[in-house]
Write a structure and sequence with these properties.
This protein is mainly β. The protein is built from three helices and eleven strands, in the order βββββαββββββαα. The longest helix has 4 residues.
Length: 145
C-alpha cells in the first residue's frame, strides 16, 4: 500500500506518490525570482530553507493558462536524480491510499499530457479516476533543459 497526494491541474486530477513530496508551499507567500533565457514554464527560483530550487508551472508546461489564486500551491518534490524542484498546481485535493494492483496502464488516448509522463491511472472512488504522474521523467534534467 502506498499513499498519493491528489491535486487539481487545469480541471483534471493527478497524483504523486507522497514519499516523493518534501513540502507544500502557498504560492502567494513565496518570493520567486524570475529566470530569463529559460523556458517560460520554469517560472523562476525560490529559497527553500537555504536551498535554491527551481519552480516549474505544470499548467504552462502543458500549454495551458496559469491563473494564480489563493488555492495555488507549490508541491516540493525530490526526484530520483536527487533534485529538489517545486511544481505549481491549482490546488491540493486530498491524500489517498492505493495499492500497485489498483494502478492500470494509461490508454493510448490523450489524458492531458504525453504518456511518457504518466505512471498509470488509478480509481480512487467510484466516480474518480486519477492520473499518476511519473515525476522522475517529467522533472528529469533532460526534460528541464
Amino acid at each position: 500500500m502506498k499513499e498519493i497526494m491528489i491535486f487539481n491541474l487545469v480541471n483534471s486530477v493527478y497524483g504523486i506518490e507522497l514519499k516523493r513530496i518534501k513540502g507544500i508551499l502557498v504560492y502567494s507567500s513565496l518570493i520567486i525570482t524570475p529566470l530569463y533565457n529559460e523556458r517560460e514554464w520554469i517560472i523562476g527560483v525560490t529559497n527553500l530553507r537555504g536551498e535554491v530550487i527551481a519552480v516549474v508551472d505544470l499548467r504552462k508546461r502543458f500549454g495551458n493558462r496559469a491563473i494564480y489564486d489563493e488555492n495555488t500551491v507549490v508541491i516540493v518534490i525530490q526526484t530520483n536524480e536527487d533534485k529538489i524542484i517545486g511544481i505549481v498546481v491549482d490546488s491540493i485535493e486530498k491524500i489517498a491510499h492505493i495499492t500497485n494492483e489498483n494502478v492500470i496502464n494509461a490508454p493510448e488516448i490523450s489524458v492531458g499530457m504525453d504518456l511518457k509522463y504518466i505512471e498509470g491511472l488509478v480509481q480512487i472512488e467510484e466516480e474518480e479516476m486519477v492520473t499518476l504522474i511519473n515525476v522522475d521523467v517529467l522533472l528529469s534534467i533532460e526534460e528541464l533543459e
